[in-house]
Write a structure and sequence with these properties.
mainly beta, 6% helix
Length: 934
């Protein structure tokens, strides 16, 4: 009789004084593959939340028939982090990508983040953004467990390459009778002295009726974070007029800017679940979940357009002679004799000021009905139906643009200093014009940037809501019998998914004095602004006034009443994806371990419809593509001893391009011989991988893991500029096959390999034999690290005539840090729980350039965070807590590095990370409150 036919009880002694933890498993097939997947939700009941959570997670990992990592909630039913990305990011092999200091994307074992899929209770969910699963939109309060599957099995969708993050929601049948739990807290963000609020509540009950058990659960959560962000950004370029010696590796700041944010971010969710269990062999579950992430953003953006008069610079190939000219006849932009890329003065700079008010909103509404049934001793059947509606609301409430006049003496002279990669310093001066001959020089210093004239040039409102509707139907039949001399089962399943993403945009754009007057917006900025001091800490080099959000709303609301919105047809598309899949897999258990293997076959049909714009014609285009792929996998698990396992696995998968990249719309520019748009014919990115892992589960709670992984990648997806190479757009006597096309395409082959290790232990079992006092038994440690190396071929870049501009070159996969590690220590005893956690990931690539126009490839600098948490159990079921996050308060920095591309072009260059393109700091955060469970 296999594991799913019995209730498994695992007793784990934690040496917690008199406390012993019982971990029980009740049927829940969608959880994970293998022993535990056949029927196991971990329920932990005792008074040591950290130790209990680790014990529960280790029990799942040990009994799984494939490679998984687990975050389990503790006895209070909570996780320490506000969103799923932050919570899962503490597991081995997971690296976090952040936005505004918050964990957003997850990269698994060094792979690109779009290789990681997201599931709720085993059902893959399309993120509101598309295939890049955003985990910051999911509150951690939803999760009973977070199960990260690193080894793909045939019952998982083929688009899962590096792994799947499965959010296991709470079931009322997990608990006996009535239960209520929750938390309430608040705190401060250090930067700008802003507030945080958080709360959650879960109520469940189980009713024993004449027709069976009925469980009902209702849950809700809320988290609000108010923020100020310190920021500067620089856009670099190679200037065609700069041809003095050394120009090949010299890049100039096209513009430098500060984006000064006032943010309010919120996560909230509501969920409900009804489970009906008429007997031990049948369960029907109805689940509904609605989660929302909002980002209300007021952004004051000051852009210094340094290259506004670039054309005034006369190309010169001669070396500079001394003395240099100190009063140039042009703006001195990219003047290598007077300035350097990192320090200098530019005269008469255009200020492009943007006042932007956004109401960003992402939501996921997912609904599932699922049944699990056993027939006799050998047969089982599972089925489910799911409907999910995801929405990505990118609307802009209003954006006002203020621009300097063309008269150069009404603009500032800007002295810039970028020698410190962590600070872009600017000083503002008036601009003086000299005569005989006409030259320019800096005048008096100016502190208040609003001293310079910046008339209103436009007011825009954007309505952009992109819904994605998804339907999933799945059925699986299982039969238990002896297989290969062991006790096992065969499972055969079929699954149908239909996903439709719709993109529509409409806007109102005002740009005349009469239109401005009609909506009542001031054409001078001071009347549109607030007299508030700067709330950040970064030394800007100037003072400014925040714009009034009320004034913005009043103006754009009035604009919506008076002016009709117009369609942004170039961004309209509908993409429908249909996936018909079948799989066959076998699971057999032996005295020496277990074997899981099989194959999944998927037929994928993509249909696209959008508007294409070519000279003189805008019309609808429809496309359809089909592909059928097979995904075999095999996992072998050897029980070396009761405490030691050796896992070897082979997996395969395919990553498809995102929906907007597969849209069929194009925009043709005959004047510049360019075509841009989607590529519905692009092939999926294929990957084949092997894993080998050793695991040691020391009693009572220790754990050590060491593993290696390798993946081979084909048809790598990347965005590039290449020759169009098709006659599909040839009409009107114009041959467009040789036009430069910008969009998604397939590249060459590559690979990624690496090793990872994890260790955790508690001192409690060893205090007596080490002669230590009892109180020291509360100390424990958790640590994990991943090292990986990736290389893919970026194809050569050709011109319209087919001549090579840039040779092919080897680059790492985007999102790949060479090293990722977490280390944490905790103390837990006498009702007190303390934890200090450090996370680190080294530099990773963000994107790879086709030319040197923007100073080469882009990277994110290494990122690390230190967090602290404390809990104290005041009485049974009630505890107080304190959390301190981002204690190091290190910035996030993205930069350009031209060295790889220059070396490919035959210009020997050392790696240079000094070209900062984005820098942000967000401040430390402190919260506290109470948690309860009754």
């Amino acid at each position: 009789m296999i594991q799913s036919k019995i209730q498994k009880s695992i007793r784990i002694a934690l040496f917690c004084g008199a406390a012993t933890i019982t971990v029980s498993a009740a049927a829940q097939d969608a959880t994970i593959p293998g022993d535990v997947a056949e029927g196991d939700t971990i329920i932990v009941t005792a008074s040591r939340p950290i130790a209990e959570s680790e014990a529960a997670a280790l029990a799942i990992q040990k009994n799984s028939d494939s490679l998984v990592s687990v975050v389990a909630s503790d006895a209070v039913g909570r996780l320490p982090d506000q969103n799923i990305a932050q919570a899962a990011g503490r597991l081995p092999g997971l690296a976090v990508e952040r936005d505004q200091g918050q964990a957003r994307y997850l990269s698994l074992r060094g792979a690109p983040n779009y290789w990681t899929t997201l599931s709720f209770d085993g059902i893959n969910v399309v993120s509101p953004e598309g295939r890049d699963a955003r985990f910051d939109s999911i509150p951690s309060a939803l999760a009973s467990q977070i199960v990260v599957s690193k080894a793909v099995t045939p019952d998982m969708p083929g688009e899962t390459i590096s792994g799947n993050v499965n959010i296991i929601t709470r079931s009322p049948l997990d608990y006996d009778g009535f239960r209520i739990s929750g938390k309430l807290g608040g705190g401060k963000v250090e930067l700008g002295s802003r507030e945080e609020y958080e709360g959650s509540l879960t109520i469940s009950n189980v009713f024993d009726t004449n027709v069976g058990e009925i469980g009902v659960l209702l849950s809700g959560s809320y988290y609000e974070r108010n923020m100020i962000t310190d920021n500067f950004e620089i856009d670099w370029e190679q200037v065609s007029q700069d041809r003095r010696p050394g120009y090949e590796s010299r890049f100039w700041a096209r513009e430098t800017e500060n984006k000064l944010y006032r943010l309010t971010r919120k996560n909230w969710s509501v969920s409900g679940r009804v489970d009906f269990r008429p007997d031990a062999n049948n369960t029907i579950s109805l689940r509904s979940l609605y989660t929302i992430f909002t980002d209300d953003e007021a952004r004051d953006n000051y852009i210094f357009d340094m290259d506004d008069r670039q054309g005034d610079l006369v190309a010169n190939t001669a070396a500079c002679s001394a003395p240099v000219t100190t009063t140039p006849t042009n703006t001195a932009y990219a003047d290598a004799c007077n300035n350097s890329p990192f320090k200098g003065t530019v005269y008469g700079v255009d200020i492009n000021q943007r006042s932007t008010l956004r109401a960003f909103r992402q939501s996921v509404f997912t609904n599932t009905i699922e049944g699990k049934h056993r027939f006799g001793d050998d047969w089982g059947f599972k089925w489910l139906a799911n409907y999910t509606l995801s929405k990505d609301d990118r609307s802009v409430v209003g954006e006002a643009r203020w621009d300097s006049p063309s008269t150069r003496t009404l603009r500032p002279t800007v002295a810039y200093d970028f020698t410190n990669a962590n600070l872009a310093r600017v000083q503002l001066f008036t601009t003086n014009q000299l005569s005989s001959p006409t030259r320019y020089t800096a005048g008096t210093a100016v502190t208040a940037i609003d001293s310079f004239t910046k008339p209103l040039s436009s007011l825009r409102r954007l309505i952009a809501v992109d819904p994605t509707k998804a339907y999933t139907f799945k059925g699986e039949l299982a039969r238990d019998f002896a297989l290969f001399g062991g006790e096992g089962s065969i499972r055969a399943g079929i699954q149908y998914d239909q996903r439709t993403k719709i993109n529509r945009e409409r806007e109102i754009n005002l740009n005349t004095a009469a239109q401005f007057a009609s909506v009542g917006i001031s054409t001078t900025y001071p009347a549109f602004s607030l007299d508030l001091p700067f709330r950040g800490d970064i030394p800007l080099g100037y003072t400014f006034r925040y714009f009034s959000q009320d004034a913005m709303r009043d103006a754009t609301d009035r604009a919506a009443e008076l002016f009709a919105s117009t369609s942004v047809s170039g961004n309209h598309y509908t993409v429908r994806e249909e996936i018909l899949a079948g799989y066959l897999m076998a699971n057999s258990k032996f005295d020496w371990g277990s074997l899981v293997g099989g194959v999944r076959v998927e037929k994928v049909t993509n249909k696209g419809r959008s508007l294409a714009t070519v000279p003189g014609v805008t019309g609808e285009i429809e496309t359809e593509t089909n592909s059928t792929l097979a995904f075999p996998s095999l996992h072998v698990n050897f029980d070396v001893t009761d405490e030691q396992k050796l896992r070897v696995g082979f997996t395969s998968g395919a990553a498809r391009a995102d929906y907007d990249q597969m849209r069929p719309n194009v925009v043709v520019d005959d004047a510049n011989q360019r075509i841009s748009g989607g590529n519905p014919a692009v092939k999926p990115e294929r990957a084949y991988g092997i894993d080998a892992y050793y695991e040691y589960y020391a009693q009572p709670q220790g754990y050590f893991m060491l593993g290696a992984f390798y993946k081979r990648v084909e048809d790598v997806l990347y965005t590039s500029r290449r020759s169009f190479g098709s006659d599909a757009l040839n009409f009107g006597g114009v041959d467009r096959s040789g036009y430069a096309f910008s969009g998604i395409t397939n590249g060459g082959k590559g690979r990624i390999f690496g090793v990872e290790a994890a260790f955790q232990a508690q001192l409690e079992p060893y205090t007596e034999q080490l002669g230590l006092p009892a109180w020291m038994g509360g100390f424990g440690i958790t640590a994990n690290a991943t090292w990986n190396d990736s290389k893919v071929t970026k194809p050569a870049i050709l011109d319209n005539a087919g001549l090579m501009l840039v040779p092919s070159r080897r680059v790492p996969l985007p999102g790949t840090s060479e090293v990722v590690y977490n280390i944490g220590g905790y103390y837990e005893k006498y009702g007190l729980s303390l934890r200090l956690q450090y996370q680190m990931r080294t530099t990773w690539a963000d994107g790879f350039a086709d030319n040197l126009a923007d100073a080469g490839d882009t990277y994110w600098a290494g990122d690390d965070e230190l967090d602290f948490s404390a809990r104290y159990e005041v009485m049974k079921g009630l505890e107080v807590y304190f959390d301190a996050s981002n204690l190091l308060d290190n910035p996030g920095r993205r930069y350009s590095d031209p060295s790889n591309l220059l070396n490919a072009l035959g210009v020997p260059t050392q790696r240079n990370g000094n070209y900062t393109i984005e820098w942000e700091r967000f401040g430390r955060r402190f919260t506290g409150g109470v948690r309860f469970t009754f």
